[in-house]
Amino acid sequence: xxxxxxxxxxxxxxxxxxxxxxxxxxxxxxxxxxxxxxxxxxxxxxxxxxxxxxxxxxxxxxxxxxxxxxxxxxxxxxxxxxxxxxxxxxxxxxxxxxxxxxxxxxxxxxxxxxxxxxxxxxxxxxxxxxxxxxxxxxxxxxxxxxxxxxxxxxxxxxxxxxxxxxxxxxxxx
Length: 173
Hints:
This protein is an all-beta fold and 173 residues long. 0% of the residues lie in helices and 69% in strands. It is built from no helices and 14 strands. The strands form three sheets. A nine-stranded antiparallel β-sheet has the order 1-2-3-4-5-6-7-8-9, with no helix packed on it. A three-stranded antiparallel β-sheet has the order 10-13-14, with no helix packed on it. Strands 11-12 form a two-stranded antiparallel sheet. Strand 3 and strand 4 (42-54) form a beta hairpin. The protein is elongated and about 80 Å long. It starts with a strand and ends with a strand.
């Protein structure tokens, strides 16, 4: 829906401006304008200055530009958060975020973790599972201790990796 919508039946395209709202099975998106085209039963939509919400997991954010082609969504100059809408205490701010529902992976390029408006951590590339569980590294554990037989301070680092083998089988290495 939008204030002004133009549809072309010949090339199966739509252009809309003003208070646009777009919804499909994955996202609810609101923005300034949209251009969409249907080819081979696949819709490609480009939305400017958008706010979005993933329907299944309530992740939300804002993007300067969203391009959606089938099951792949690219957010340019975007934020991403699981906090309630308009209460984003923490979010990821990235140059580019891609959600690929075919592979069930999200990736962010040049991402910064922001908490209460303060940048906490920069990651040149970050990846996560969009829905459910997935294999990957878990937060590392650092420990410093003294052995009873030595005066030297010992240090231990553990970097666990979680394997999601099956819905009822896990392995932690």
